[in-house]
Amino acid sequence: MSDISLAVEGADDDEDDEEWEYVEFESITEADLLGSEWLVGTCYDKKPDKIDETWCRLARTEKNENIAVWGDNSEGKWSLDVASQYITISKNYVWGKQIWSCVVEDYYYLAGTVRSWSYLTAAAVEAQWQAKRLGADKEEAGIAPWFDEESELYATTEDEANSEEVESETASLPAADANPVTENASSLQE
Fold this sequence. Notes:
This protein has 4 helices and 10 strands, in the order E-E-H-E-E-E-E-E-E-E-E-H-H-H. The protein is of the alpha+beta class. The chain is globular and about 55 Å long. 13% of the residues are buried.
């Protein structure tokens, strides 16, 4: 992995002297992904109770083309845009193509959406997917972000938690047509 330094402006804009803090983080390169194997779980919108599992190997041909070899003997291509850390992994079919894509935020885990198209249908998002790198040390990889309650990627904000509480309280209120004021008023008219 290659190191990139980012300059972050200081939080206090009132000061004449701007403070800068250098933050180092690691960026994934094609070399980091080349030869890696991933266990991929895909949950299609049409079958929400079933997760299709397979594996995918990110390889390179003798002609220097990135290819994806899937566990069901399918092939496709893969690419990584290093600047945006966006990966796409495709699977080719006679009738069209599926593309697994996401922003790479973890060296050991990936999660994103699956888009597909065919000669008869327009492109559409049809599934969500998660993957873990195979052959990695479990302690070094740590817990998957989708299981880690403290992960920024999947944590709910306090506002989201509060809105969920309000929704649950609202759901327990009586329906508008069961309003006691309306019921009393109608009984007075009779």
